[in-house]
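Contributing new records

If you add data, match the layout below exactly. Sequence lines come first and carry their own label; structure lines follow with theirs. Keep one chain per record. Anything else will be rejected by the validation script.
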Amino acid sequence: MLATSSDLVVTVLLIAVGLLLPATAAVLLTGQRRRRRHASARPFAAVLATAVALGGVGAAGAVLLGVPTARATVAALVVAGAVLAWWPIGRQWAVRGLVAWALTVTASVSYLVYAALWTLTADLTWAGALISGALWLVEAFVVLIGLGHLWEFVDVLTRRQWPASVDPRQVVATYEADPGVAGTRPFVSLHVPTHDEPPDMVIATLRRLMEQTYDRYEIVVIDNNTTDEALWRPVEEFCAGYQGVTFLHVENLEGFKSGALNLALQHTDPRAEIIGIVDADYLVEPDFLADCAPLFADPGLSFVQTPQDYRDWDVSAYFRRLYYSYGYFFDVSQVSRNEQGGAIFGGTMGLIRRSALVGADGWDEWCITEDAELSLRLLRDGGRGLHVDRSYGRGVMPLTFEALKKQRFRWCFGGVQILRMHWRSLLPGPRGPRNRLSLAQRWAYLVGGLQWFGDLAGVLFTGFLLLGAADAVVGTGIVVRRLSGLLLLCVVALVLLGLVRAVVLTRRSTGAGWRDAMGAFGLWLALGWVVAGACVRGLFARGGAFLRTPKQHGELRTSYALRANLTELVLGCLAVGVGVAALLHGTAASAAVGVLLAWQGAGYLLAPVNSVAAIRSHLPADLARRRRAGLATAGTVRWTGAVLVAGATAAVVVYALSGPELPDRPAVTSAISAATQEPSRDAGDSRGDDAPQDAPGDGAATDEGADVAPVDDPGAGAPPTPDDDGPEPGDETATEPAPTTSATPAPDATPESDPRPSQAADPTARPTDGPETKPTDRPTTKPTTKPTSRPAPTEPPGQG
C-alpha cells in the first residue's frame, strides 16, 4: 500500500515540477503590469480551461516517460484540481501567477509526503532515522518560508487588483471635497530620537523638518545616553532658537530607543493627535505631513508608513547594491503585505495615531525593534495600518559592511523577540475580542518573522554538507537520501530558477541593473552567518543584544575587513576547501556534494569581499568622517563564531572517520522506478538478497546519478525542489542527510536536500542506468528518492 502511494506521489511530483518550469518562466518574462485598483479578475472559466490543459499536458508527458496511463491520469487530475482549489484565494492574480503558485505548493507537499514515506519505511539505524526525521522537519520549515517568498513574488508580478494601494494626494483631495472632513487637519508631533550622532547631521535634519508646508506640528528632539557633551550641546543650542522645537537630553535611560520615545511622549503637546517618527539622519520632503497627516481623517486608521529611502547611494558599486537590497522590502514585501492588511510600522518616516499608541501602553521597551512590535499589537487590537508607496525622506545607509551587520543583527534579533512574545496570536484561529487579526494578517507576520530563520537553516545545512562531503570521500555513510536521473535534473533546474527568480524580482521592483541585482543577492548571502547568530541569540536571550565589531583607528585597511569577518572567512574557506576536495574525488556523488558545498562557502566569503568593497568606496567628506568616528568607537569583538566553526569542523572529521555501519536499503521503490514500472509489479518484486554489494564509498553505480546534499533554493520563494533518491532493491545503503542552503531577499534562504552514499548496482537496473549484475525478465531503473528544493529566503531587508 505504501509503495503504491509512493508511486502516485512521485508521479504527481514529476508532473508538477515539469509544468512549473514553463509557468514560472511565463511570470518572469512578462512585464509587470501598472498597478490598477479596479482591474477585473479572470473568470473561473479561464482558470478551468487552463487547469484542464495543464492536466492533459501533464498526463501525456508522464505517459511518455513510461508511467502507466491510469496512474498518470490520476496524478494529472490531482495537479489540475490543485490549480482550481487555489482559485478562490488567488483570483486577484493573473492566471499564470495562480498556476505558478498552485504547482509550487503541489510539488512541495508531494515531496514532503514522499520524503516522509521514505523515512518511515527505510530500514535505518536509530541514528539515521533520527537525523532523517530532523531533516524532514527542517525541510518542512524551509518549505513554509519559501512559500512566503513565493507569495510575494507572485503577488507583486501578477496581481490585477490593488484595492489597498492609495495615492495620498488623491485621498486628501477627496477629503477636502467632503464638507464634514474639510479643514480637519490634525496636530502632529514629530519625534526625533538621537544617540551619539554628529551635531551637524542632526541640525540638518531639523532644518529640513522646519520647512514642512503643513502648519500644525511641533518637533521634539530626545537625546538619550550621549555622554559626550560636544555632541548634544550644539543641538540643544540650535533648538533653543526656534519656537515649536523642544530638546530633551537624558542619561542613564533604560529601554533603548523605545525608552527615549516613551519619554518624548510625556513631553508632547496636548493638542497632538498624531505622532511622527523621524531618524536623526533623514532629510524629509516638505510635503510629507501635508500629504500623509490628512489620511487620519479615517477614524479606523492606526498608522501610516512610507518607504525608508536613502541618499548618497550611487557613490560606488557597493552602495548601489546595498541600496537595492534595502529597496526589496518596501518595494516587494511591504507592498504585498499591505494588500493583506499586514503592513508593518517601520518607525522612521511613519505616523501613528496618538490615542492608539497610548491605548497600547506606548512603546514596549523589552523589544529592540519596537516599531514593528507595536504595529502587530495595534492590528491585533483591531486597528488598521496603511503603506503609502511614495518616498518622502532619505537617510544614510550604514557606511561599512560591519555597521550593516550590526543593523541586520538588531533587526533579526528584534524579529525573533516578536515571535517569542506573540507567536500564539499568529496561529490560525477565530477572531475574537483579544485577537482581531485576520488569517491573512497572521500569515504575513508569522512568515515574515520565520523568514529570518532561513539563514540559520543555511548554516545547519552547511554542516550536513560537510558530513556529506566526508561520506563522499571517506565512505562513512552519513547521508540519508540520494538524487539520480531525472529528479537530479529537476533539482538543478529549480535551484537555478530560484536564483533567477530572486534576481529578476529585485530588478523589476527596484529598477536595478542585472549586475546590481546580483550584487544585492550576494549581500543577502554574505549576511547569512550574522543573521543565523541573531536567531540563536533571540531565541534564548532575555534582554536586548547587539553585535560587537572591532575598533579601528586611522585609515581603513583590508586587514580590518578580514578581522571583522573572521568567522565567515574561516567557514567559507573550510566549505570551499572541502568542496574542492570532494570534486577532486572523481565520482558523480562527491562532485555534486562538492559543488553545493563550494556554493555555500562562496556565500560566506562574500562577507569579507563586501567589507573590502565598502572600505574602498569613496564617500563625501562628512560621511567619511562619520565612518572613521564610528569605527573608532566600536566594541571589542569576540571570536566565538570562529571557535565554534573550528569545533564543528573537528566534530565532522571525528564522526566521518568513525561513522556507523551502512544500514540495509529501505524497502521503498525509487522515484524513477515508480514513474516507469508497470502497475502490476509488486512492491517487493525482484528484490534479491544475493545481489552483489559494493563497498561503501567506492563509487559504484555512479553512472545512474549523483548522491547530493539537500540544497537551498537561492531565490525568493523558490519551490522546494524534489530531489529523489530511493532505496535500491537488494542493495545496502548508508544514509544520512547532507543538505545545504543559501540566503536570499530580507528575508530569507531555503534549503533543499539531496543525499548521497554510493551503492551497489541494482540487480534489475537497465544498462543505461547502471551496471547490470543480475538478468531479469523486466528491466527497471535504479531507484531514486528524495526530491527537494529549497526556496530561498531572501531575507527581507526590513525590520519585520
